[in-house]
Amino acid sequence: MLDQLFNAVGGNVVNTLTEKTGLDLEQAKAVLPIAQETVSSGLMDEAKSGNIGGILNMLNSSGADLQSNSLFDGLKKQLLGNLLAKLGLPESVAGLVAGTGMTSIIENASNFLGGGGEVKKDDLMDKLDMKSIVGNMAKDAIADKLGGLGGKLFGK
User: Which residues contact 82 (CB under 8 A, 6 or more apart)?
Assistant: First the structure.
């Protein structure tokens, strides 16, 4: 889902990590797939729960507003846990990397998705292929309802 996005912003994120966290280039590159997995999973969960507005709110936040955004904070904490588990970084370094990395990812994603302006629902849905995600969720929900109805109709 986020391959195109991470291909577009990955270089900027790696540069930010090396400049602001003390990671070398190889370490910063190793963070990227972990961050992509974390963000992808988190945004997918939010989309599945219908929280497109929350995703847009996060993407359109910056500075202190971004840092206090609950979705951003949750993704940052997930990334911290994943960095500790998968890269074995010391907690203080992993915390700095998670905060700096997630900020860079969201800010760059916002610029990519919104073309330098506000990210709109259509931008999000089109560029991250969320229309198919939402469509599949609707199909699954209908199938679940019909499956339950079929059981009631046919005594199952």
Answer: 34, 37, 38
Return d(Cα 119, Cα 94) in angstroms, integer.
29
**Cα separation of 95 and 105, whole Å?**
15
Q: How many residues does the chain have?
A: 156
At residue 118, the 3 state secondary structure works out as coil
pLDDT digits (tens, 9 = 90+) for 47-78: 889 899 999 999 999 999 999 999 999 999 99
The C-alpha atoms of residue 60 and residue 75 are separated, in whole angstroms, by 16
What DSSP assignment string belongs to 50-99? T-HHHHHHHHT--HHHHHT-HHHHHHHHHHHHHHHHHH---HHHHHHHHH
Q: What is the pTM of this model?
A: 0.80
Query: Which phi and psi (to 5°) does residue 104 adopt?
Result: -65, -45
The 10 Å CB-count burial string (b at 16+, else e) for 68-104 is: ebebbeebbebbbebbbeeeebeeebbbbbbbbbbbb
